[in-house]
Structure formats: C-alpha cells, structure tokens
Amino acid sequence: MPTFADFSITDRWPAADPSVIQLYSFPTPNGVKASIALEELGLPYEAHRVTLADADVKSSEFLSLNPNNKIPAIIDPNGPNGEPIGLFESGAILIYLAEKTGKLLGATEADKYHVIKWLMFQMGGLGPMFGQLGFFYKFAGSEIEDPRPRDRYIGEAKRLLNVLEGELADKDWVAGEYSIADIAIAPWLRGLDFYGAKGVVGWDDLKNVPAYLDRFQERPAVQKGLVTPSRDG
Ligand SMILES: N[C@@H](CCC(=O)N[C@@H](CS)C(=O)NCC(=O)O)C(=O)O
Questions:
Q1: Could you report the per-residue pLDDT of 148-186, keeping only the tens digit for each?
Q2: Whose CA is nearest to atom 8 of ligand 1?
Q3: Which atom of ligand 1 is nearest to the CA of 29?
Q4: Could you tell me if 43 and 21 are in contact, meaning their C-beta atoms sit under 8 angstroms apart?
Q5: How far is CA 228 from the centre of its chain?
Q6: How far is CA 193 from CA 97, 166, 186, 220, 231, in A?
Q7: Which helix H or strand E contains 42, and what residues bound it?
C-alpha cells in the first residue's frame, strides 16, 4: 500500500499537515477549478504554489505526481480504502472531490451524468478552444500573419458561448443545480478578459452568460478559490 511519504513531490513542496489534501496549483482557469471545489466542499487542504515555469512543472518532483507537467494536481492522504491517492487532470479531480463528499454532482444518478456531460463540454471543448484563442489572439500566435488559426478559434469560442447562452436561458446553473460543471466552465469565461478577447467573441451580445459569470463570482468560496494559492507566493 502506498504511503504519503512515497510521493516525492513532498520533498520539494513539504506538507505542513500531511493528514489533509495537498493541492499543487497556480491561479489559472484550470488551477482554480480545484481550489474553488475544495473551498465549496469545505474540505481541509493545503495549497502549494507551483508556477508554470519549467523549473516547477517540469521538475522531477512535480513530474512524479503528474507526468504531463500541468497543474492542478492533488494528493489525498485519505483516498479510497483509506489509502493515499495522487491525481491530475482538473476534470478527474473535480469528479473525485464531488464523489468523496457526495456534493456538487447532482441529486440523482441521471443528474450526475448531466453534470459530467457539461464537465466534458468544458474539458474537451470550451477549455481547449479558449486556450488556443488566447495563444493566437494575445500571445505568441498573434504574430502569425495568416488569419486562419485566429479566425478558427474566434469562431469556435463564439459558437461555444452561444451554446451556453441558449442553455442558460431558463436556468441559473448549466446542469440545473450548482455543480462541478459550473466550477469547470466559469473560470474559463473569466479568461476571455485576460486575453482581451471579449470584443471579438461578441461578449456584449450575450445576456445569460455574463449574468451566469456574475452569479458565480459572487460566491464566497469562488472568491477564495480564485486567489489560492496566491499568484505571487
Ligand atoms: N487538461 C488539463 C490542462 C491543465 C493545464 O493546461 N494547465 C496549465 C495551466 S492552465 C499548465 O500547467 N501549463 C504548464 C505547461 O504546460 O508547462 C487539466 O484540465 O488539468
């Protein structure tokens, strides 16, 4: 049976209290999903700041927990059967935390799959498309003269936003009740601001999506999760 001491990431980012969940993250749209969920669920945890610099995410200690060199990742010292478990991929972390506590995953078995459906919409669609939009609109890709990559991701972001706009016409949260699907989706909507891309994706033509983001950001657990761990150490 693995023990907590077997996780060599703890050599570089030591746990002050090894009995609580250890979060390795940075306040990006993917990173804050884990901290917001931990805050919403009231689970005790310790947050370690792992920046996106190679010296952190590509260190041997971090790679020992996530060979895919991306935050967020967690260790739960009290996982299934009381054994420690290490996890990466924000969607997997959200499902794990929701199942551990029996919260934020819908009230019925059918609801649970509606939540997972929208979670996958974020993991496979909204997140990757918005991420590419950021690259081609704001970061290094913006220097590329060929307009096709930029137009492609602007178009996809617009399309996905309009899917959400329609879905939110008659409900406050994407799967009915507030759930891990909202915790996955809403931080990426904030990302559009950071990319300076709200204008090109037609944000001002939307009504339900901006109101949804406001609702999300009013939650105290969201406000705490958005700054955990802190950006500046
Ligand atoms: N599919 C992954 C994506 C995680 C991800 O892209 N993390 C970024 C920050 S938002 C990262 O760690 N980048 C560092 C790198 O790629 O070196 C998840 O949802 O957890």
A1: 999 999 999 999 999 999 999 999 999 999 999 999 999
A2: 70
A3: 10
A4: yes
A5: 12
A6: 28, 21, 12, 21, 17
A7: none
